[in-house]
Design a protein that fits this description.
266 residues; mainly alpha; 16 helices
Length: 266
């Protein structure tokens, strides 16, 4: 089974037949090494040919070539936005709907951009559709999807927090984790949310229900959220951690608190 592939540790060790399948969009990447090795331009060309959309290719590649900095993430975004533009111009709903369930994880990442950056959707609409990406079995899709709506979350902070606080009750750990990861005050590879840097208390509606979460994946995100906040509001983080330990002195809460206070304790 492809799901059980461990994947090579370095790009040069990826077997040639695996790389061909990855670039054809026939299988998912097994790890970060493979994720970084995929030729997204080739994958795009194959995807468009397979779906009789070859006329979309050149304008999207031009967009990629114009990037000042070409990384996996910037290329991913440029392709996702290129597909969105062309599909909207051509009213090509059929093509867009195929992408979100494609077997290749990088194609599903592009699909996340076609939702997260589609101005026809409200923040509520975007988040509702983003839930299927947030619960994706692939790490890459889960990371990209929150980035696609990050700026909208920031612009509609109160409404977003209200919606995402409901997600903290979800049985799926990936969906609970999206709620905290997407609202981190500083975050990684993304713009900061100034309102949460200045007033992290706004995020307690999301953090409180997760302060003893059973999932390590969620615990890491909550700890990192508070660690972000500690860089501008250390007193708030110390007080919150003290309160949590009093209310819920579980090993899960202790782990989160340790992660949250790591910058303060340096």
């Amino acid at each position: 089974m492809t799901e059980k592939r461990k994947g090579a540790r370095s790009i040069k060790d990826i077997p040639a037949d695996i790389l061909i399948q990855l670039n054809r969009g026939e299988i998912e990447t097994a790890n970060l090494t493979e994720w970084l090795a995929v030729d997204q331009k080739q994958l795009l060309e194959n995807l468009l040919q397979q779906n009789n959309r070859a006329d979309y290719l050149q304008p999207i590649l031009t967009r990629v070539d114009q990037l000042k900095k070409q990384t996996v993430n910037t290329i991913n975004e440029a392709i996702g936005l290129g597909i969105l533009d062309f599909s909207l111009k051509n009213q090509d709903e059929e093509f867009l709907s195929k992408l979100s369930t494609h077997q290749a994880d990088l194609v599903r990442c592009w699909a996340a951009y076609t939702v997260g950056r589609n101005n026809a959707f409200s923040i509520e609409g975007k988040l509702k559709q983003m839930q299927s990406f947030a619960s994706d079995t692939h790490f890459g899709v889960r990371e990209i999807c929150w980035m696609t709506v990050r700026s909208d979350i920031s612009k509609n902070l109160k409404e977003s927090i209200s919606i995402l606080s409901e997600w903290t009750k979800h049985e799926n750990e990936y969906i609970r984790r999206f709620a905290s990861e997407s609202t981190r005050p500083r975050g990684v590879w993304c713009e900061h949310i100034d309102a949460l840097k200045q007033n992290p208390g706004l995020g307690l509606e999301i953090l409180e229900p997760l302060n003893s979460d059973s999932s390590r994946y969620v615990q890491d995100s909550v700890g990192n959220w508070l660690n972000d906040a500690s860089k501008s509001q250390p007193e708030f983080v110390i007080e919150t951690c003290d309160e949590w330990l009093k209310e819920s002195n579980t090993k899960e809460t202790q782990y989160i608190v340790k992660k949250a206070l790591r910058t303060i304790r340096k």
